[in-house]
Amino acid sequence: MSPALNESLGVRLRAVTPDQPMHWLRRGWQDLRACPLPGLLHGAFMAAFGLILLSLAGQRFWFLAGAFSGFLLVAPIAATGLYAVSRELARGARPNLATALRMWRPNKPTLIGFGLLLALAGTGWVLTSAALIRAFAGAPVNSPLDFLRVVLLAREGHLFEAWMFLGAVLAAPVFASSVVSIPLLLDRRIGLWAAVLTSWRVVLAAPGLMSLWAALLMGITLLGMLPALLGLIVVVPLLAHASWHAYTDLVDASPLPARS
């Protein structure tokens, strides 16, 4: 048995119920209310990044469609500091902004390396999405209305279906690899591949529940993007804190040594 698989099997999976995703969202909201500043600043940064992207891309929605959907691939690593806030709240501590910022120190090579891999996956999807829309759209896609008319509501061809299929092919393994692994890497002393294997074990053990959780993450994020991206200020920390509680409910990592 490989060391990574052996280490992964040292993490026990917990039994889950279909109503737990809503429970994770409620607990995430409680964490945001208990320590709002780090979360709201993370959300404001994400919203500002999106607005900068909008201004730079201008009338190139064929590029933005992939960029904004690719945001979902790299969001888990961007939320690392908020996982730390939720962990401290669960311990009865009083976290603050410094608690979140400490997670970005350069002495965490595993998290940084995983973040680079997620960024590479996101970049690959952005380029693939842009190439697909540019090559097969029946007319220029320069605005959201163009995307609705030319891609989503097109009477001929299956461009939207192909776009969604390719996105799902890329997003599904990324989600399966990261949904538990990033908070696990933050919380416990475990190797990267063992953490990824643990994440896959969780998804394979409860595919229906984890599909529902992925759909909730995507749907709530898209709703947060609608009001000029300003909804992300609240949505980003809400989902980050909720994802921490998903991790603690899905796996029992207590056999592994804790990180400070």
TrEMBL record:
The UniProt record lists the keyword Cell membrane: no
Origin: domain of life: Bacteria
A Pfam family annotated for this UniProt entry: DUF2189
Keyword vocabulary terms for this entry: Membrane, Transmembrane, Transmembrane helix
Residues annotated as transmembrane: 34-56, 62-85, 111-137, 162-185, 192-210, 216-240
InterPro entries, sorted: DUF2189
Designated name of the protein: Putative membrane protein
Source species of the chain: Inhella inkyongensis
